[in-house]
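re the bet — no i am not wrong, look at it urself. input seq straight from the record:
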Amino acid sequence: MPRLPPPEPRHALPRPRLALALQGGGAHGAFTWGVLDRLLEEDVELAGVSGASAGAMNAAMLVQGWARGGRDGARAELAGFWKRVSDAGRLGPIQPGLSGRLFGRWNVDHAPGTHLMEWTRRWITPYQTQPADFHPLRGLLTEMVEPELIRRAGLRLFVSASNVRTGALRLFDEGEVGVDHLLASACLPHLFRAVRIDGQDYWDGGYLANPPLSPLADSCPDADLLVVAINPLTCATTPEDPAGIAARLNQITFNATLLQELHSLAGRADGPRLHLITADEHLQDLGVYSKLMTDWGFLSWLFDAGREAAGRWVDGGLPAVGVESTARSPAFA
């Protein structure tokens, strides 16, 4: 009987390769934590991460955890960070009411602490009340951030900050990111003194790159770019009350650079394949001040919402990685 030739070897499909761009938005960054937690359950290969403000902190924790223990290490690092953020803010002025805790009504624009902060913001600056190096997360980050781990993770990292005096964007990469760079990226000027680095003062990176896209795409040319946008890109109706108007203006302001960069990259012949996970469905009804609320119930709700959104993208978008763009949004049309 003639011997049959051996069967052809089956070649495994290449793992999806992604670069992640993580938008900032204060406590709403716990939504991104949920997105990342779900994505890291998949057998994906990461090339790099960028972020602004809370997105920068998520990015740094992901990279550091990746160096410590791959996908599982990154998930553990992110979970530990957000639990400590909640613990550090348990006595903060912005707290949910009983109905918020019981029924998931997390908009705190009319809470007593919110009115106090609004009055303070109008009449008092951080330079009148804070020591030069104050930031509520400084101690936490000093204990958690390990720059050496970030440097040796093998992932590109870009963190944005806004130079106060020149108005120019400043990007810090994995070779230099430390505590001050993360605080600079998250420095809202009406809440905190500018963060000084090498003689220059910096404010929140979200004003100029929220998050940085082009540097990440250029440094990871073989990866698809997945953007996690936590400031709602669209709204169902035009707001008419002061709190609603302020919230929508905040969303438009912090989305402006993102939309500009998305349009620019989509128009480039050599641009990356683009993918988008948004929080529009879950966060549209939340006001500005919920970004300052670190109640564990609220952060857990955001985490679950992020996992849900990421799960939908995994089902519909992950198979397209390496094949075609899936970024879809009325704001991106």
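see?? The chain has a mean pLDDT of 89. told u. also The two ends are 64 Å apart (CA to CA). so pay up
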